[in-house]
Amino acid sequence: MIGQEMDPGHNLQLHWMKRPAEVSDGASVETTKSLIEEEEEEQDDLFSVRSLTASSRLSSIKKTIMKAQIDEEGYIVFYPEVLIGNHYKLLGLLGKGAFGLVCRAENLHAGNLVALKVSRRDSFIHEAGHWEYRLLLEAQAAEQRHIVRALDGFSWQGHYCLATELLDTNLREVLNKYGRKIGLNMQAVQLYARHAFKALLSLRSNGIVHGDIKPDNLLLDSQKTTLKIGDFGTAMRVEEAGAEGPIPYLASRFYRAPEIMIGLRPDCAIDIWALGCSLYELCTGELLFTGKSNVEMLRQILALRGRIPAHMIRQSPFKESYFGEGGSLTSSQATATQLSLKTRISEASRSAQSLLISLLNSCLEIDPKRRITPDKALDSPFFQIEMP
User: Fold this and answer.
1) What angle separates helix 123-142 from helix 186-205, to the nearest 10 degrees?
2) Does some domain include residue 96?
3) Which residue range(s) make up the domain with 84?
């Protein structure tokens, strides 16, 4: 039976993301720890009255608004009530990274809530923020349903500010809440995988590499039935990726493709690898690879997926440091052989489907030239079946 894609407007019950109770007996591997702490929802009583006009409301708010302060590293110091760019009022802190802060904010002109990324006061990071805005506009022009919408981009007091639509949660938080040790229901995995591959298809068609696919950047709407890819802070055009030399630390380590680690030029295939790692995590509730360095990651990848092809080693600028004769890691130590991907998934979850395992194997080909493409992935039998 051909599976029908779920209507994003359909209000699914939250239990659909949980596995059946009996599955928990088969989960023996510890789940990944939460990378994002759950934040209590903040109340916005100050703006509960909507009868004021936009101009009079903005004028009254400015009288009590706090002036932004900047710390010694160029970050804005977060306080509720701070006004950014003359009309974005900060409400809550969503995250902080090397680039700056991401805040929940209200557009006082339009009255809508947004996610507002405010870069550090740094010329390089400012330009990177502007570049992110331009790439995001290009990406969403081609794919409006599964890529987060950019709403505004502007420079403010040496910071670059990017406003995007505010989504409800991300797959990291969903896993922590509903999939600890056991992963999500296969119906949910299928839906989210389909949406993610559609987004990657659009990016590939437009020559854009996202560069940081992971559950944290796979965002969900309030009903948890529509997935959108967010955070384009490391995105780049294919022709520019690695053009100035190796970038062996591109992407978050647990989702980093092997070609990145050995110094080859990346392309859109690195996003497929990262999505494969993410889907394994959705299905099992645990990380696939957990190395603390690129060398440890490569050891785990080679133990699970086999040797790196000789042609990739020959092209690697790090071949003298990493590899010995026969393509083995020179710093490799004796380690127990890991189980096959099929066995690992089967042991972690008795409800895992063989069709998903086949798709994951195609996503996790070490050679990026042999890795599945988004269009072929969407034609996978995994998406042709109706999940119970």
Assistant:
1) 100
2) yes
3) 45-165
Task: Determine which one of 25, 168, 212, 375 is catalytic.
Answer: 212
**How far, CA to CA in Å, does 222 sit from each of 17, 168, 176?**
14, 5, 17
Of the ranges 307-311, 342-346, 370-374, which is most confident?
A: 370-374
Kindly state whether residues 195 and 113 are assigned to the same domain. Answer: no
The reported pLDDT for the residue numbered 51 is 35
Q: What is the per-residue pLDDT across 296-312, written as a single tens digit (0 to 9) for each?
A: 999 999 999 988 999 99
Q: Do 257 and 148 fall into the same domain?
A: no
Domain end: 103, 131, 165, which one? 165
Pairing of strands 88-96, 169-170: unpaired
Phi, psi for 101 (deg, rounded to 5): -115, 150
Last residue of a domain, one of 165, 184, 219: 165
Q: What is the pLDDT of residues 181-234, one digit of tens each?
A: 889 989 999 999 999 999 999 999 999 999 999 999 999 999 999 999 999 999
Known catalytic membership, residue 44: no
State whether 318 and 214 are in the same domain: yes
* Residue 40 domain flag: no
Q: Name the domain count of the chain.
A: 2
Nearest to 271 by CA among 180, 125, 192, 371: 371
CA-CA distance, 282 to 275, in Å (whole number)?
10
Please give the pLDDT value at position 6. Answer: 43
254: confidence class by pLDDT, cuts 50, 70, 90: very high
**In a domain? residue 187:** yes
- Domain of 245: which CATH number? 1.10.510.10
Does residue 172 share a domain with residue 89?
no
- Please check whether residue 35 lies inside any domain of the structure: no
For residues 147 and 201, state if they share a domain: no
